[in-house]
Amino acid sequence: MNALLQAVRSVDLRIYYSLSCFADNRDLCRLARLEEGNNLLKGGIFFALFWGQWFRREADQEKRRRAIVAILIGAVLAIIASRTVAFIVPFRIRPMDDPTIIHPVYSVHFEYNLIHWSSFPSDTAAYFFALAFGLAYLSRRIAIPILLYTAGWVCLTRMFLGVHYASDIAVGLVIGLAMVWLSIRSDLVQLHLVQPAVTVMNTGRSWFYPMAFLVSFEMATVFEGLRSLGNAVIHAAASGLHLGSVRTNLNRPIGVWGGLVVTVALLVAAFYVSSVLSTKIRAVPGISHNLAGHFHLPRPASVRAKQDGPDKPQLAETPKWPHQRLDKRLAQ
């Protein structure tokens, strides 16, 4: 086992030193700094593609939407799984913080915004490869481009900057693929997580899409806002209880970890509550809903007779939404 670990470390160091040869290239360093601090070119592109897949008008739209929900759940599970592995296995220091290896001098200054967690495995690789494999599952045309983009733009840059070793990236890749595959194939996920989300979408779009926007925004920024909020809440609670700074004995803060777990729990609870409320509203006799998801009560017969009159001609219903009018013209 020790021989295997030494071989892996040897390969990691060779790759790290090979990438370090380009540290004096100012253009590459500026590009790496752009990648490290720009969420638009990382999560933004991924979720733009997901929304494009969501609104594609094809025969399998319902099936594709269920797959998208499962993929996003799998991406969140990939982060949780990678952090669980990091807490179980021995702590591994990041390459840039390791005093036993030679570090390059970059031609530009980098400002790192990193949490002092173990380098192994890479939760960034697990998360973005989970999203990339999900997009490849939805569309084979973008499979190779999005996988190359994830490997080159997202992960290779982190190896170049010394944030992760190559083995950290490889294990994160495996975790991301496994979590997405399990989410798509798991009946438990489909029944208890995907189905409530689909129910909310079908019964209350005015509820679903604001929630979906917030979720996709946070996922595109890798939960930056929620992680900061969770960390602040946990440390504020700890200060209120006079517990001081809450940390593990390996100097790995649990604030953001706890914040992410609480966030996932709140999102799941929100889907369940919305699903239950929508189901109860639909179960009330005489209540219907239109395509916009707004519920309304039908007028009683006596009220319709007084308002419309017995001889009022019945006009053809005018479609309310632009895509409905287009569908009607195409049908004619």
Question: What would a concise description of this structure say?
Answer:
The protein is mainly alpha-helical and 332 residues long.
Walk me through this protein's architecture.
With 332 residues, this protein is an all-alpha fold. The chain has a domain at 2-205: Vanadium-containing Chloroperoxidase, domain 1, CATH 1.20.144. 68% of the residues lie in helices and 1% in strands. The chain is built from 13 helices and 2 strands; from the N terminus they run H-H-H-H-H-H-H-H-H-H-H-E-E-H-H. It has helices at residues 2-20, 26-37, 40-54, 61-88, 123-138, 143-160, 166-185, 187-203, 205-220, 224-240, 255-283, 301-308, 322-331, and strands at residues 288-289, 295-296. A two-stranded antiparallel ribbon has the order 1-2. Strand 1 (288-289) and strand 2 form a beta hairpin. Helix 8 crosses helix 11. The model is unreliable at 245-256 and 286-298 (pLDDT under 50).
CATH topology of the domain at 2-205: Vanadium-containing Chloroperoxidase, domain 1
Radius of gyration: 25 Å
Tell me, rounded to a whole number, the average pLDDT: 78
Proportion of strand residues: under 5%
> Helix content range of the residues, please?
55-70%
Shape by Cα distribution: globular
Distance between the termini: 71 Å
- List the helices and strands in order: HHHHHHHHHHHEEHH
Number of strands: 2
Descriptive terms for the model:
mainly alpha, Vanadium-containing Chloroperoxidase, domain 1, 13 helices, 68% helix, globular
Spell out the blueprint of helices and strands:
Blueprint: H1 2-20, H2 26-37, H3 40-54, H4 61-88, H5 123-138, H6 143-160, H7 166-185, H8 187-203, H9 205-220, H10 224-240, H11 255-283, E1 288-289, E2 295-296, H12 301-308, H13 322-331
Helix pairs in contact: 3-5, 3-9, 4-5, 4-7, 4-8, 5-6, 5-7, 8-9, 8-11, 10-11
